[in-house]
Design goal:
Strands 9, 10, 11, 22, 24, 25, 26 and 27 form an 8-stranded mixed beta sheet that branches. The chain has a 4-stranded antiparallel beta sheet with strand order 1-2-6-5, with helices on one face. It has a 4-stranded antiparallel beta sheet with strand order 4-3-7-8, with no helix packed on it. The radius of gyration is 27 Å and the shape is globular. The longest helix has 15 residues. The relative contact order is 0.07. The chain contains 18 helices and 27 strands. The protein has 568 residues and is an alpha+beta fold.
Length: 568
């Protein structure tokens, strides 16, 4: 699209965005400064290019809406939108008229048909992609992005700031409850009740696990990716305890597995990114890892660590990522693209649609023992397959300390991933790992602590306590604090007290993040479960060392319990 401005132009501060609706209609949205005159905005309108025999562009009648809006973390502004019916979208190009001699050309999007490849990216959360991020994704997908799916609600603060929104059509899946701000920005909820469809790809919207089988059966496209809108399974720290159980989504996994073994279910309400093992639902709603099962992926990843790691989580994503999808008649590709700045390579999983309609993963099937032997004999490709095998298949391959040292000496992504998988498959090796991993394997140390954190009986082990006390990983500490809060685990608080004691004595540096300092200070010094006696000398030592944000809990503690034990 091209802009022709003069000094008198009514210039939007963001937009235009093209919002696609499920009924085939679309919305053109622009954002203007709150200081822009309403009278000047009244003259902004849409035109269509001149047809044969016409003197020039003609006025295009569209439903017009103008609203004052307060977006999060932004100045008050104005939203001007034009809603075009399905019958009006046959045009290839629209002209946005901003004043005499001031026009903006808008290309009307064309979604792919059944024989073309469909390319979609999921966007939202706390980390907003830049134009360079979107260019990197398009390169990975082999062509321009057909649509960006806006996930959750936090995108309302960032929409328009990435520099790519005017070039990529936007979609907002069905929302159960109307949100006034979202309604102004992109229109009313409920536009995609039957799901999103692009060429050979369909993404049915799953609002209730009990309805999953019926919703998926309504789609006949070669590739189906169910979108779990309700966040049935979540690992972010804000989630409710019941959502941390994979059994909570057993019905959805079972429905997807029986529907021609769909490759993946995408969880839409996530902040902590993860990729699961292939999963199936066994009897009594028990979820187990098994080759040929369904993977569960989070659409969003803001770079935070999850609350804890289940053994069936193949990988947690410890950096912000975009999830992108490419589907054609024969192949499906899911790609996680790290956001800038990041030195991590992207992660890609591929499936192939055989003539018998059976989907086979590109990597994720094979004999674990044979592949392990092949890698030890120099076959590096065997390691790539091993990395994605289900956890039960990795048990008993005979990994030892020598093999671990060799793996840690490799810089490949598959070696890092395989080490992380082994940390879940063989807990007996963890003692050896801690001694040899060093500071360069912080990603592995984080995995081990979070997996131990998922098992209450392991939190009392000396190894876990030692790793936690010596950890300088703020994301780990935040997860530990959340678990201690949810489960009222006094043992975790006592371990954190010992960690704080080592920080006071200079054996470990004090956490530099003021918010983390405050979270720790509140958890320990405001706790009704901990004895004040061991905390008192720590409170006195920290009075002048903590960030001002973190001092109130210490001040309250000393005022309540006194500076000396005799005042108890």
């Amino acid at each position: 699209m091209s802009l022709l401005w003069t000094a008198e132009a009514v210039r939007p501060i963001s937009g235009p965005w093209v919002i696609l609706h499920g009924d085939g209609s679309l919305r053109i949205v622009l954002e203007f400064s709150s200081a822009t005159s309403v009278n000047r905005l009244q003259h902004v309108h849409l035109r269509r290019p001149a047809a044969e025999g016409e003197d020039g562009p003609q006025l295009l009648h569209a439903i017009r809406q103008h609203n004052q809006v307060q977006r999060p973390l932004a100045k008050r502004s104005q939203i001007l939108s034009f809603h075009l019916s399905r019958e009006q979208t046959y045009l290839r190009e629209l002209i946005l008229w901003l004043g005499a001699g001031r026009e903006l050309s808008i290309a009307v999007p064309r979604l792919p048909h059944a024989e073309e490849a469909a390319r979609v990216v999921f966007v939202g959360g706390r980390r907003w992609p830049t134009g360079r991020d979107m260019e990197a994704v398009a390169t990975q997908l082999g062509g321009s992005i057909h649509a960006a799916v806006l996930v959750g609600t936090e995108w309302t603060a960032s929409l328009g700031s990435g520099g790519w929104e005017s070039a990529i059509p936007l979609l907002v899946p069905h929302r159960e409850a109307a949100d006034a701000l979202i309604d102004v920005l992109v229109g009313p909820p409920g536009d995609w009740r039957s799901g999103l469809s692009f060429g050979p790809l369909a993404m049915p919207l799953i609002r209730s696990a009990s309805e999953a089988a019926l919703v998926m059966a309504a789609h006949l496209e070669p590739w189906l990716l169910p979108l779990d809108l309700s966040g049935t399974f979540r690992l972010d720290r804000e989630a409710q305890p019941r959502q941390h159980s994979l059994g909570h989504m057993a019905m959805l996994i079972d429905a997807a597995h029986r529907r021609h073994r769909l490759p993946a279910v995408i969880s839409m309400e996530q902040r902590s990114g993860f990729i699961s093992d292939p999963l199936i639902a066994a009897d009594a709603r028990t979820v187990v890892a098994q080759a040929g099962g369904v993977r569960v992926l989070s659409a969003l990843s803001d770079g935070s660590a999850p609350l804890f790691l289940h053994d069936h989580i193949a990988m947690a994503l410890y950096a912000p990522h975009l999830l992108a999808v490419r589907a054609d008649r024969d192949h499906l590709r899911l790609h996680y693209q790290p956001l800038r700045p990041s030195e991590q390579p992207g992660l890609t999983m591929q499936w192939r649609l055989n003539e018998d309609l059976d989907r086979q993963p590109h990597a994720g099937g094979g004999n674990a023992e044979a592949l392990w032997t092949a890698w030890q004999q120099g076959d590096n490709q065997a390691l790539e397959v091993l990395s994605w095998l289900p956890l039960p298949e990795l048990l008993g391959i005979g990994a030892d300390a020598a093999a671990l040292r060799r793996l840690m000496g490799l810089r490949s992504q598959s070696a890092r991933l395989f080490l992380r998988r082994l940390s879940a498959a063989d807990t007996s090796l963890v003692n050896e790992w801690v001694a040899i991993m060093g500071n360069e394997a912080e990603y592995l140390r984080r995995d081990i602590i979070l997996r131990q954190l998922a098992h209450p009986e392991r939190r009392r082990l000396p190894l876990f306590r030692s790793m936690l006390i010596s950890s300088e990983d703020g994301e780990v500490i935040r997860s530990v604090l959340r678990v201690a809060e949810l489960e009222r685990d006094i043992g975790l608080l006592q371990t954190l007290t010992q960690r704080l004691r080592e920080q006071v004595h200079g054996q470990l540096p004090l956490d530099q993040d003021p918010t983390l300092q405050h979270a720790l200070s509140h958890a320990l010094f405001d706790s009704p479960f901990l004895s004040p006696t061991p905390l008192r000398p720590l409170a006195r030592a920290l009075e002048q060392r903590l960030h001002p944000l973190a001092r109130p809990p210490v001040d309250r503690f000393l005022a309540r319990h006194g500076r000396e034990r005799g005042l108890d």
